[in-house]
Amino acid sequence: IGWAPDGWDTLAKRLRLSADDLRDSGLGFVNKAGRQQDAFRGRIMFPISDERGDWVGFGGRILPGHEGPKYKNTTTDALVYDKSRVLYGLHA
Questions:
Q1: Are 9 and 37 in contact, with CB atoms under 8 Å apart?
Q2: In the CATH scheme, what is the code of domain 2-84?
């Protein structure tokens, strides 16, 4: 379990990710203004594991009182995460 800070690009700057790496990892994207943006801002984070226990994505839960979808998962654009092939919590 972890925390994704509220900043728009905190993770991208901290890890020095390229726009392609940010998108491919599912941790962010490039917004309409052409700037890198973290995908899970202001959320409690939970790793998503495959049947072998390897982390393949993340789920995030927004805190009460904040706006946005209650739960958010790594996007299907990520290279390692395919939601249709992973049963959440199977390898907990």
A1: yes
A2: 3.90.980.10
